[in-house]
Amino acid sequence: MPKLLENDVEKLVVVFIILTSIFIIIQVGVLAGVFASIRRLTFNVERLRTNVEEKVEPTITDFREVLGEAKDILSNVRGAAENFASISETVKHQVEQVNAVIEDTTDRARIQISKADEVVTDAIQKMEATSAIVQENILTPVHEVSAIIRGVSSGLQFLFARRKNQVDQVHQDEELFI
Fold this sequence. Notes:
Elements: H1 2-160, H2 166-177
């Protein structure tokens, strides 16, 4: 039995080696197929990458240019915004100064108008007072003196007037009539 067993073991080893060789060959074939598939896939991926690069590269270049221009525009806008803020601040300051000057001028004008009103009012009151004083102290006595002079003049005319005879007067009138 030992021989039989030995033969059986040898047969089993040979079968095992044959099966192992077949499996190794199948495995090599599968690996060769996987390798070929990977190579084709790599080639296709490479071709796809090249196509994508060819189509996307101009777009990326344009995008980079646009991005650069956008940066320039943003820089200009930022500068303009800073200038606008500076101008706004200057205008605000100038408006505040002008408002202060206008308020000061308005206050001074009110004070001057008030003073002028007081001066005019005082002058009118003094003119009215002077007019009343002139009326009382000068014109009234002048009217009285004038009346006295007229009275004296009338009295003197009456006294020194020559009286003509009434008959002579009538006679003269008749002569004129004829």
